Amino acid sequence: MLMTEALYMTDSYLKEFDAKVIEVEGDSVILDRTAFYPQGGGVLCDTGALEKDGKSTEVVEVTKSAGRILHKAPNHALSVGDSVCGKIDWERRYALMRNHTSAHLLSSIFYTRLGVLVTGNQIGTEQSRIDYSMETMDMDAINKAFENANEEIKKDKAVKIYSLAREEAMKIPGVVKLANALPPSVDMLRIVEIDGVDIQADGGCHVRSLKEIGEICFLKAENKGKNNRRIYYTLRN
Questions:
Q1: Which CATH topology does 93-236 take?
Q2: At the topology level of CATH, where does 5-88 sit?
Q3: At 95, is the pLDDT very low, low, confident or very high (cuts 50, 70, 90)?
Q4: Does the structure show a pLDDT above 80 at 136?
Q5: Looking at the chain, which terminus has fewer C-beta neighbours within 10 angstroms, N or C?
Q6: Residue with more model confidence, 165 or 173
């Protein structure tokens, strides 16, 4: 089975790319390479378009299956071997990048200050939410965490992406902040590091520096069962 090269893993800012169709499954197209991020890890997928000979087909959903990235493009007329130009809906992608990096920043602060892990999340474009393994709803601690996050943003720390051997990466305290979860069993792990603040194994798209996030604004908190608190937030430019 042919695999798709995930261009977003090395360049989150890639807006357009050239590729070839290697498989077609109904209204889904599989390419040899793609910059479209597939939905996963609580992060929404990219959308955009595939263009061939001046004709554009909308990509409405992107998923991943067994190493293949499927671009759902209803009513497409593409065939195996076709050359296409992929174009990312950049406004959506950039909003997701900002929200995803902010989730890493918040989760690092919740982890280091309160000792809690992430039990679930949904990263969106307008607002996001993160579930934490908090025993009680401590609003003072929650508000303080948001204050701390925005203080770090003002320092404009760099966000770096690189690879580490899995054995070496797993020795780093806090490299996994998801409760009951481990990174994939591969030799090399992709690491996202916020300089001096956080190091996490992650396969998603992120901004290059914290200033791009803007301000993280707390919206509300909910109890979601025993030792589980759901935090909603949005971003302000």
A1: Threonyl-tRNA Synthetase; Chain A, domain 2 (3.30.980)
A2: Elongation Factor Tu (Ef-tu); domain 3 (2.40.30)
A3: very high
A4: yes
A5: C
A6: 165
Report CA 33 to chain centroid distance, whole Å. Answer: 18
For 180-221, the pLDDT digits (tens) are 666 777 889 999 999 999 999 999 999 999 999 999 999 999
Query: Which residues have a Cβ under 8 Å from the Cβ of 147 and sit 6 or more positions away?
Result: none
pTM: predicted TM-score of the whole model, two decimal places: 0.94
CA dist 129 and 230 (Å) reads 7
E-strand ranges in 53-99 read: 55-59, 61-65, 68-72, 83-88
Question: Which residues, other chains included, contact 97 with Cβ-Cβ below 8 Å and sequence gap of 6+?
Answer: 12, 205, 206, 207, 212
Phi, psi of 87 (to 5 degrees): -130, 125
Number of H helices, E strands in the chain: 3, 16
Residue carrying structure tokens 């320092």 = 155
Q: Please list, in sequence order, all residues whose beta carbon lies within 8 angstroms of the beta carbon of residue 54, skipping any fewer than 6 positions away.
A: none
User: Boundaries of CATH 3.30.980.10 in the chain?
Assistant: 93-236
